[in-house]
Amino acid sequence: MYGQVAGVSSPNALNENTTSLKFVEPYGFGTIKCHGRITEIEHHEVFYSKLRKIINSLFRGEPYQFGHQTAEYVVRVEELTGGFTAQTIDFFLFGNYMGRLHPGDEVVIIASASAKRNVVKSIYNVVTDSDIKPGLQLSAAFIRFIYICLALLLIAVATWGYQMVVSGQIYHYVLPAGLIGAGALTVKRLKRKFFRKTR
Fold first, then answer.
1. What DSSP string runs through 116-154?
2. pLDDT score at 5
């Protein structure tokens, strides 16, 4: 819950002090916080392969969705003051939010900010006093963490193999294994010859 947003202790107090809250402000490293009202919602569903979903998670910050369809929403939020001079900002949501967000809802959004798109990390609906969460999906941060770990593991294995070759220690492993393999192959060949002669 965002009950403590900007020093406000409850959703009711949040409604009473909307004028004291900033529309958009920095929230942390690479993230922003927006407190406003939804004016438009656009919904798209596309079919992506697993590889495309992983690439989008790694390079575009999109959550990995398990379904065959990738659901994407573009939500436009405006200042609570309204009027012709009100500022607006667009956010991208990924997952199933059907029926849980509506134009006119007052929301508090935490999103990763970039020059091209603002991808929602969490969204709190002040009207319904609830955190709005999508269906089952993996965050882009988790996907990146897994692939970084795999890359580090591959680098460690490659470094270990290179050091083994340079130091000559690999021959202590390769030579015995080669002798064992050659011995096993020789035994198989002798068995075949023996069985042929006995026939």
1. S--EEEEEEETTTTEEE--SSEE-HHHHHHHHHHHHHHH
2. 35
Residue 94: which of 66, 114, 115, 116 has the closest Cα? Answer: 66
Q: How many CB atoms lie within 10 A of CB 35?
A: 24
- Chunked into runs of 10 residues, the chain (199 residues) has average pLDDT values of 35 45 83 91 85 86 82 89 76 82 90 81 88 81 92 91 75 58 60 61
Cα diameter, the chain: 101
Take residue 174 and report the two structure tokens written for it.
Answer: 């390769």
Distance from C-alpha of 58 to C-alpha of 64, rounded to nearest angstrom: 10
Q: Is-above-0.85 flag for pTM?
A: no
pLDDT at 182 (0 to 100): 57
Between strands 64-65 and 24-28, the pairing is unpaired
What are the chain's domains? 5-139 (2.40.50), 144-198 (no CATH)
> Which residues are CB-neighbours of 187 under 8 A, at least 6 positions away?
none
Tokens of 49: 């392969």
Lookup: tokens for 9 = 């202790």
